[in-house]
């Protein structure tokens, strides 16, 4: 994530910075969910007679707030880029996107539990095709992140290799 921020700044790429901000919001949401889940399991006491069950709702609200703040900052930066365009280093942007794709593919296989060999007699108590809803949603989310990184990579190739097309289309 830090590498993406540094690379995005050097490449002058708002797309790479957006990907880094997205990763930051994902990590923040995960941390908030863990903390909220911990508090939600606490038992009731004299001060909190109904327990801490609402901690998860509050954690979700904080996660949404973080996403909206990050989105607002990125929209503001995008408006500034439209007003004052900057030259983007498409080559650096491409390699940053490629590293994002690699990380997302590794995450996908780690989370999905897919690997090249089988475990005969491995019975973890979960039926084939069944599993944690949270884990399945995490796998789908990582797949979506990978698609986003591919989009950044395609944009990088257009910026890096098709300068004539960009000049003709956008007049720069």
Automatic annotation (TrEMBL):
<dbReference type="GO" id="GO:0005385">
    <property type="term" value="F:zinc ion transmembrane transporter activity"/>
</dbReference>
<feature type="transmembrane region" description="Helical">
    <location>
        <begin position="92"/>
        <end position="111"/>
    </location>
</feature>
<feature type="transmembrane region" description="Helical">
    <location>
        <begin position="57"/>
        <end position="80"/>
    </location>
</feature>
<keyword id="KW-0472">Membrane</keyword>
<keyword id="KW-1133">Transmembrane helix</keyword>
<protein>
    <recommendedName>
        <fullName>Cation efflux protein transmembrane domain-containing protein</fullName>
    </recommendedName>
</protein>
<dbReference type="InterPro" id="IPR058533">
    <property type="entry name" value="Cation_efflux_TM"/>
</dbReference>
<feature type="domain" description="Cation efflux protein transmembrane">
    <location>
        <begin position="2"/>
        <end position="161"/>
    </location>
</feature>
<dbReference type="InterPro" id="IPR002524">
    <property type="entry name" value="Cation_efflux"/>
</dbReference>
<dbReference type="Pfam" id="PF01545">
    <property type="entry name" value="Cation_efflux"/>
</dbReference>
<keyword id="KW-0862">Zinc</keyword>
<dbReference type="InterPro" id="IPR027469">
    <property type="entry name" value="Cation_efflux_TMD_sf"/>
</dbReference>
<dbReference type="InterPro" id="IPR050681">
    <property type="entry name" value="CDF/SLC30A"/>
</dbReference>
<dbReference type="GO" id="GO:0005886">
    <property type="term" value="C:plasma membrane"/>
</dbReference>
<keyword id="KW-0812">Transmembrane</keyword>
<keyword id="KW-0864">Zinc transport</keyword>
<keyword id="KW-0813">Transport</keyword>
<feature type="transmembrane region" description="Helical">
    <location>
        <begin position="20"/>
        <end position="41"/>
    </location>
</feature>
<keyword id="KW-0406">Ion transport</keyword>
């Amino acid at each position: 994530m830090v590498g993406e921020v540094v690379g995005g700044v050097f490449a002058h790429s708002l797309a790479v910075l957006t990907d880094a901000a997205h990763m930051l919001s994902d990590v923040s949401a995960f941390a908030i969910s863990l903390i909220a889940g911990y508090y939600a399991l606490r038992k009731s006491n004299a001060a909190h007679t109904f327990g801490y069950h609402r901690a998860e709702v509050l954690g979700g609200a904080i996660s949404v707030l973080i996403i909206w703040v990050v989105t607002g900052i990125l929209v503001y930066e995008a408006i500034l880029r439209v007003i004052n365009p900057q030259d983007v280093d498409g080559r650096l942007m491409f390699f940053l996107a490629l590293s994002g794709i690699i990380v997302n593919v590794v995450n996908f296989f780690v989370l999905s539990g897919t690997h090249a060999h089988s475990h005969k007699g491995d019975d973890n108590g979960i039926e084939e095709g069944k599993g944690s809803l949270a884990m399945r949603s995490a796998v789908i989310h990582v797949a979506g992140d990978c698609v986003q990184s591919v989009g950044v990579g395609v944009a990088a190739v257009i910026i890096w290799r098709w300068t004539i097309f960009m000049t003709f289309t956008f007049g720069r």
